[in-house]
## 1
Amino acid sequence: METAKRIAAAREAVLSVVPFFEEHFSKVESLWKRDDTRVTEADLAISKRIHRFITEAFPQDDFCSEEELPPPGVPARELRARFAWVLDPIDGTNNFARGLPQCAVSLALLENGFPVYGALYDHAQKTLLEGGKTVPLSRGGVPAETASPEFDRHSIVSFHFPLKRAQLAELEPFTTVNAVRCQGSAALNLAYNAFGAIDGSVDYNTKVWDIAAAVALLEAAGREIAFRGAEAFPLREVSSEMPRLSWFAGTPSFMRRARGLGLI
C-alpha cells in the first residue's frame, strides 16, 4: 500500500508539469554549470514543482533532484528513509534548449536504495513511460509487450557521445556491425531499450539521476544493466561530486555478447 500510494503520486507529479514543459520547450535561455552541463530556468522550475508536490505528500521521504544538490565542497546528503525520490527535471537539456525532441522528465522511486518504479515523460512521443519492480511497462497507460530477441547484426545499439578513442576502440565490434543511435538523453536511451526499440545501450559518463527511473523500466522489461567500476545502487547519499557511472544494458543476449568481449 505504501509503495502503491507513491507510484500514483509519482505519475501525477510528472504529468502535472507536462504543460509547463511543453510551453517552454526550445524557448528558454540556458547557462552552463560548473560541471559543464547545461541548465535552464525550466529545469529549476520543474525541480521545485515536483519537489514541493512529493514532499507535501510524503514529508518523511528523502528527495534528490539534480538541480538541488549540495554544492561542491559541502558533505554529501545521506539518504536514510525507506523511500527516496530521484529526479532529473529535464534529461536531455541540450535537446530541450535547442528544440530537439529527445528529452524527458525523469522521476524514480527508490525503496531501500534500489529503484522500484520509474515515470518518464517522453517529449518526443508526447507520452508517459512507466514501469517497475511490481508495475508492468506501459506507454500512455497502455500495457507494453516486452521481448528480448537474440542480438545479431540487425540489432540496434545506443551510445552517448562524445566517446574517448579507447572507448570507441573497445566498442568497434558493435559500431562496425550494428546500427547505432544516440538520443542525447541517457534516460531515453535506456527507456527505449526497455520498450524494445533498442537492444543494447552503453554509456561511460552518466550520473545516477540520469538513469534511476529508466533502470526501473529495465527491470520491468526483464533486461539487465551492469556497471563498470562504481555501482549506482543501493543509493545511500547524493552530492554534486558523485562519480560518473559507466554501464552496459540490454537484452540477455546483448549482455552475453558484451561479457564475451570482456567489456563487463
## 2
Amino acid sequence: MNIIYVNWDCFGGEDLVQAMDALGHHIYITQMSEKCHISYDEEFAAKLTEIIKAEHTDLVVTFNYFPTISSVCETLHCRYLAWMYDNPSIKVYDKSITNQCNYIAAFDSALVNELKAKGVETIHYMPLAVNAKRMQFLDITENDKIRFSKEVSFVGSLYNEEHNFYDRLAAASKDEELMGYIDGVIEAQKKVYGYNFMAECLSDEIVEKIRKALPFRSSHDSYLEERQVYADYYLARRLAFLERVELLALLSKFFSVSYYTHKQDRQIGKAKNFGPIHYFNEMPKLFRLSKINVNTTLRSIKNGIPLRAMDILGAGGFLVTNYQEDFLKHFEPEVHFTYYTSKEEAAEKINYYLQHEGEREKIVANAWELICREHSYEVRLTEILKNMGMIF
C-alpha cells in the first residue's frame, strides 16, 4: 500500500512510520504547514494534492485530525486516517469530519460516544499504541542508572504557562463572583473521578459572562459546543494544575519525588524539579528505572488512556494512575497497573507497592507482556486497516 504520512511536531511519529514500514507499506513523508493547525491552508492543499497523485496514494495518515487534509482526500477519493492522541482537539469537531474518506481513530471512548450521538459515523474508538520493539532494546548505561533511578517520578505539564486561559479570564472579566463560581466547580470536580460534569455546570448565564470577557465562537456548522470549550480549555487545565501540584506536594512528604516539566523554576513541596526531559531518548529510561511512575490525566480526556500512561507501560514501568474508564477495557487493576481515586489513596498505593517489590515487578512483567501482544503499533495499525477495509 502507498501511504503518505504527514508529519508535524508530535510524539510518536517515528514509531508510527517504523510500524507502517515493518508492515510492508511504501511510506512517503511530507511536512505539514503551520497554517494547517489553525485554518484551511490552500497552499498546502495544492502541494498535498500533487503528492497524492504522484505517489499513487492509497492512504494519508496523521496524528490528530486536520480539515485541510480531509478536504484534499475527499476530493481525490483517497482514504484518510487521523489517529487522535489529543483531547481536547477543536479541529475534530469541524464539519469536514463527516467526509467519507475519513477514518478517525480516537483514544477516548467518551469523544467517540459524543460525536456518534451527533450523527458522526467516521469516528471509531482505538487506544494508543507503543513501539514495543524499540522499548525492548533500550540502551541503559551506568550514567542512565545514576540519572534516572528514582523512587517516585512524574512527567508532564503543570499547565502553569504564562497567559493561560484561566488567568486571562480572571484578568479580562475582573468578576470575582464568576471566578468564585468557576473555582467552586473545579473544586467539586477535583473530588470526583470517572465522570466529568464541569461543562454541565456552566449555565447559559455563566457562558455569557465568559463569552463577554474572553470570547470563543465556533463556526455555526461545527459539532463543538461553546460551553465544552470553556470547560476543556479554561477549567480542565486549571484543575490539572491544582491536581498535579497538590498530588506532588503530598507525595513529597512521604517519598522521594522527582518531576519533569517544561519549567524548572517552580518548587513543589519537597519534590525535585528536573525540568524538561527528551521524549524519545530519555523518558523511556526514566519510566523503566523509576520504582513508581505517577500519571494524572487532564480532565478533558473523559475516559481515555492518555499517551503518557501507555508510554509508561510500554517502557516497562510501574504505573500508578488516576481512574479512567477505558483502562478497564484493556488492562486489569493490580495485574497490569494500579489506580487511585484521591491523592490520599495514591499515597497509600505507592507506599504499598514500594514495600512489596515482588508484587510490583510481577505487575510490570504482566503489563509488558500484554503491551507486546496487543498494543504495539503493528497490532493497532493492522486492526485499523482491517476496520477500514484496506487489508483483509
## 3
Amino acid sequence: MEFMSAREAAEKWGISQRRVATLCSEQRIKNATMVGNMWIIPSSAEKPRDARSIRYFQNDEKKIKPFLKWAGGKGQLLSEIEKFYPFENERITKYAEPFVGGGAVLFDILSKYKIEEVYINDINAELINTYINVRDNVDKLICILKVFQEEYIPLDTGRRKLYYLDKRSRFNELKVKEDEVLNIEKAALMIFLNKTCFNGLYRVNKKGLFNVPMGSYKNPMICDDKNLLAVSKSLENVIIKCGDYRESGDFIDKNTFVYFDPPYRPITDTASFTAYTENSFNDEDQIKLSNFVNDMNRKGAKILLSNSDPKNTDKEDNFFENIYSSFNIKRVKASRMINRNSNSRGKIKELLISNF
C-alpha cells in the first residue's frame, strides 16, 4: 500500500493540513497511521464527507432560532452539545427529539444539516399545537400576533396587565375547550403569553391552567415574523407528535441520532416549583426513561441525554452514574436562570450522557 503525508493529502483535497490531522485523530480516514509525530495516509484514501459544509440554508438568511423562550432551554449549552452531533457519519440520516421543549438543539441542527427524517415530540399539548401551527399556518399566526403586538406595546403598565390577564384567561378557556377550529388562536396566545409573562415560564396549576403572572418587559418582540417564517420552512417535513416519549421508539433505529432532554431531576427541595404539565417526573420516571434509552441503545441509535448533576449539592449522589452505568457521562457548566433564591443563581454543572 502506498502512502502520502498529511501535507500531500491537504493539497490533494483542498483543505488545511491541520484539518487532515484532525480527521486522522478522529479515525475518519481509514488506515491512517501515526509515525513518530506525523500522519501517513493511504494514497487511495478519499476525502471524508464533511457534514459541516452541508447547510440547511445555502444563502445569507438569518439562522433559525427557537420561537419560544423555555425554562431549561439549551441555547447556552449548544457549544457543548454540538460536539456530539454525529452527522458526519454517513449512516446517521435521522434525528429524533422526544422532549422537544423550546427546540434549541432542533433548530441548531436544522440550521446546519440536511436530515432525511426528523421526529419531534412533547407531552405538552399546547406547545405541540404551537409547533404544528407555526409549520402549517404561519401566515395566519403572524397576522394575529401582529394585532397583539400593535395593541399591547402602546399600553401603560396598568392597562398592559389587564390586557395580559384577558389573554391568559382566553388561553385557559381554549385549553379546556380543546376545539380544533380555535387552535391557531390558541397557538398565537401561547406565543403572546410566552413573550410577555414572567421569565418566559410555562407553568400550570393542578387543574392544568396557565398561571404565570405578567413580566416587566418594556418592548417585547411578540411577532418576530422573519424568524417564524424561517422556522415554518425548516419544519416543513418534520414529524410532530404529542404524547409519551416512548412512542418515538417506532421511529428510532440504528440510523438515528436521538437527543433526550427530559424534565430535570431537582437538585434542591425548591427546584421543582415549575410544572410544564399537570404531570410530575420523579425518580421512578427517570429510571423508566433510562430503561427506554437502553432499549434504543440496543437498536444501535446514537444517543445523547442531558440532566441536572446531583453532585452540585450532594457529592455522594450517584443516581445517574447508577442508571446510566454503561454510558459516558460528561459534566458541563451552565447558568441557572430561574430560582426562587437569587443567591442560588449562577454557574452550576449539568450532565451530558452519551453512548458514544
## 4
Amino acid sequence: MAVTRDIAAARIESETQDYVERLRIQREEGQYTMHKQTQSANIGAFTVEKQAEVGVAGAQALGQMGANGAGDVNLGSSSEGFNMGAMMASIAVGGAVGQNIAGAMNQVMGNMSQTSQPQAVPPAVPTTAYHVAFNGQATGPFELSVLAQMTVNGQLTVDSLVWKSGMPQWAKAGTVPELQALFASSIPPIPPIEQQ
C-alpha cells in the first residue's frame, strides 16, 4: 500500500507540474500575441519615423553639398567650370528626399482616413479545475480530463474529497453533479472475496 501510495503521489505531482507548465506556456503565448498586436498596430508610426529620418539625412546631405560648393555652375573665367557629377548627385538626393517625404505624408493621410482597431485577443477558454484531498493534503487543481484519468487509475473515487473555487466546502466527488459522469463509466470495485 505504501508503494502504491508513493507511486500515486509521484504521478499526481508530475501531473501537477505538467499542468503548471501548460499554464505558463499559455500565459507566455498570450503575452507574445499581445506584443505582436501592439507592434502591428504601431507599424505605421514606425514607418513614418524611419522615413522622416531618411528625409532629414537627405536634407543634411544636400545642405552639406551646398556648403562645400558642390553643384555650382561656374561659367566665368575660372578653371572649375560646370560640375556635372555634383549637379546630378544633388538632383538624385533631392528627388529621394522628396519621394520619402511624399510617401510619409501619403501614409499618414491614409492612416488618418482609416480607423484601424487592433484585433482583440479572445479570452482564455475557462476550464473547471478541482482540488483533491490525498492523505489529508490538498493537491491540484486538476482539470476534468486529469480527474477522469485519476478515476480510471483508481486515484479518484466517489468518496474522494474535492473542492473548487465557488464551493462553500469540500464534498465527496460522487455528490458533485459535474463529476458524477466520471464515475458512470468506471469499473465498480471488486467485492472482497469471502473466505470459507
